[in-house]
Specification:
F8A; elongated; Serine Threonine Protein Phosphatase 5, Tetratricopeptide repeat; TPR-like_helical_dom_sf; 301 residues; mainly alpha
Length: 301
């Protein structure tokens, strides 16, 4: 019954003269259709989302930016709820969640593009961060990195608040690292360091700048840029932290997994490093361990 009514509304749009009144009437019909479904029912998430998507397209046609954004975000979140529900039940049944996920991400893209064109960078960044979080949740790490990088660029371009910028940067680094694109992560961090001045005016902001330096240190380590790591560590950290990075570089260079593991455990047991930073250290150690094991296996053949 739902799909029959959905098709009827679409067909009426194609037959009638496409004036503003036609699209406004169709938007009202799609909205009414959405209300016939229970948006709290997991089996009807996708249906409500589809109706809101139809409504959104009507508002796009009449260039009502506010209603386009509102319905796009509503549709996006419902599509993602449908995808998440099916993903939780069975990640392996990709057909059950990939389509609603793609539809939801497309709706987020539409909403953020409208907001950006309408001169609302703060709201655009908030939506980009939300979209990146979802891509990360579904392990689309490279896509998530791209989304967070777009957010970083907008924050820098429009001189937005530091919390928004650093939230975008840190998540961008995490996602690119998970996608094995250390080069892209390092590039983002260096661009941010070139653009903003390290002049914190509060303990919280001071910590954010320190975390940015820590991320760069980890990325230099993971990129095997040992000479640059030594120089950067001495210039950026106190003696204890600098020595930790330098020792990690030496252990990595010598493929000394046991020593590196002990050093990573020190970061885990320290209150100085954040959970995300410890994860990056551990990821570096794990990748090096696999690389060494693969090399020994090849020699044994």
């Amino acid at each position: 019954m739902f799909y029959k009514r959905f098709d009827e509304i679409n067909t009426s749009l194609n037959k009638l003269i496409k004036g503003n009144k036609t699209f406004t009437d169709a938007a009202a019909q799609f909205e009414e259709l959405a209300r016939t479904q229970d948006e709290e029912n997991p089996f009807e998430y996708g249906l409500v989302a589809l109706a809101k998507f139809g409504e959104m397209q009507c508002w796009q046609k009449v260039k009502d930016k506010q209603k386009t954004v509102r319905t796009a975000v509503k549709a996006a979140r419902l599509f993602i709820k449908a995808a998440t529900y099916n993903y939780t039940i069975s990640k392996n049944l990709r057909d059950t969640w990939s389509d609603p996920l793609a539809d939801g991400l497309q709706c987020y893209k539409i909403a953020s593009e409208v907001l950006k064109s309408d001169g609302k960078p703060n709201l655009t960044v908030v939506l980009l961060i939300e979209r990146g979080r979802i891509e990360k949740q579904f392990e689309l790490f490279h896509y998530a990195g791209n989304t967070y990088e777009e957010s970083v660029k907008l924050c820098l371009e429009k001189n937005l608040t530091l919390p928004l910028l650093f939230d975008s940067v840190f998540n961008c680094v995490d996602c690119y690292s998970r996608a094995d694109r250390i080069d892209l992560a390092l590039s983002v961090v260096e661009k941010v360091q070139q653009k903003i001045q390290d002049t914190p005016n509060s303990p919280h902001v001071k910590r954010l700048f320190l975390d940015l330096k820590i991320f760069k240190g980890i990325l230099l380590l993971s990129s095997f840029k040992f000479e640059e790591l030594v120089e950067f560590s001495k210039a950026s950290f106190d003696e204890n932290v600098a020595n930790l990075f330098i020792k990690m570089g030496e252990a990595t260079k010598g493929n000394q997994i046991v020593i590196l593991d002990n050093l990573v455990n020190q970061t885990r047991n320290s209150a100085f490093f954040t959970e995300m930073e410890v994860d990056l250290f551990n990821r570096h150690k794990t990748l090096l361990e696999k690389s060494v094991e693969a090399a020994y296996a090849e020699l044994a053949q």
